[in-house]
Amino acid sequence: MPRPDKHVFVCTQNRPQGHPRGSCASSGCAEVMNEFMNEIQNRNLFEKIALTNTGCMGPCMMGPSVLVYPEGVMYGRVKPTDVKTIIDQHLLGGEPVANLIAPAEVW
Questions:
Q1: 7-18: per-residue pLDDT in tens?
Q2: H/E segment holding residue 7
């Protein structure tokens, strides 16, 4: 398999209800992960974009969190409807989606 151009990490951390840090699972990360999987599959982007689910990446209050490498861009509060924009604008177009980037004090 060739090396992908981009690697997307989606936090799928699940903590018990009422945990003080919360979790991306309670914010809808499964739907975000599924949307990335569906878009990558539907567009046949397997060789360009790698997708990995992860545990906690830190900014739980900003979940669901999505991290894109090699740039190291962290997105927060990602919704399934944001996935196409992230793919088109950032992963394929090279321009991060400014309104979704986590604040500097978080990442």
A1: 999 999 888 788
A2: strand 6-11
Share of the chain above pLDDT 70, in %: 99
Domains of the chain: residue spans and CATH: 6-100 (3.40.30.10)
Report which of 82, 81, 53 is spatially closest to residue 67, judged by C-alpha positions: 53
Tokens for 68, please give them: 């894109």
Are residues 102 and 82 in contact, defined by beta-carbon separation less than 8 angstroms? no
**Tens-digit pLDDT profile for residues 51-72:** 999 999 988 888 899 999 999 9
Phi-psi region of 13 (alpha: psi -120 to 50; beta: other; left: phi over 0): beta
